[in-house]
Write a structure and sequence with these properties.
Elements: E1 2-7, E2 13-19, H1 21-24, H2 30-43, H3 103-119, E3 123-126, H4 136-146, E4 152-156, H5 161-167, E5 173-177, H6 183-187, E6 191-195, H7 196-206
Parallel strand pairs: 1-3, 3-6, 4-5, 4-6
Antiparallel strand pairs: 1-2
Helix pairs in contact: 2-3, 4-5
């Protein structure tokens, strides 16, 4: 069974806590993790690129010049694809890049990356998140004592507006909730700091 260090809000250590194997004891499964990460990244794409086809371009109703006798190529419309101002052939159109991934796969991938972070001793637990005011200084002190300078992910039990405001000016620090946590969030962070209440919710969600 893996374990993680427990920190107080001032950055001091206050012991360790055991991490259950149902969430933090999974073996690596690169295939599932790759599929889930690719789906999560695709879901972020907007897919707003749009071009007009020949029938969508305004104008071009009249034949530009007569069929014969000009010595030039035959033209039926000024909106042909090879004409200036014409339509686009096989151009991009608005679409959704979302991919359907089974919920079991998403949970499995999240457990795999959490287990990898736990094996590398890159998971820590915050005893209690106290942010009565949105101030960056105590948050910076906490992150500095837990992290080694890399990207840090703070997982809270509920949406904590003061915590989000306190961390948004800190470089390489992101905040999310236990219910919104996904594999891409964990892989993007070098260290994962989980609030004790969020750890209970995460274990209940994934075990």
């Amino acid at each position: 069974m893996a374990s993680a260090k427990v920190y107080k809000m001032d950055g001091s250590e206050s012991g360790t806590v055991d991490l259950i194997d149902a969430v933090f004891g999974h073996e690596a499964n690169n295939g599932i993790v790759h599929d889930v990460i690719k789906a999560l990244q695709n879901a972020k794409r907007q897919g707003n690129a749009e071009t007009k086809t020949r029938k969508e371009v305004a104008g071009g109703g009249a034949k530009p010049y007569r069929q014969k006798g000009t010595g030039s190529a035959r033209r039926g419309s000024t909106r042909e694809p090879h004409m200036r101002g014409g339509g686009v052939v096989f151009g991009p159109h608005k679409r959704s890049y979302r991919q359907k991934v089974p919920t079991a796969f998403r949970r499995k991938a999240l457990c795999c990356v959490l287990s990898d972070r736990a094996r590398g001793e890159r998971v820590a637990v915050l005893d209690a998140l106290n942010c009565p005011d949105p101030k960056s200084k105590p948050m910076k002190q906490l992150i500095g004592s837990v992290s080694n300078g890399g990207a840090t992910l703070l997982v809270t039990a509920e949406v904590n507006r003061n915590a989000v405001l306190s961390a948004r000016n800190l470089e390489k620090v992101s905040v999310t909730t236990a219910s919104d946590l996904n594999a891409l969030d964990v892989l993007s962070a070098n260290r994962v700091l989980i609030e004790r209440g969020a750890l209970e919710k995460l274990e209940a969600r994934l075990s």
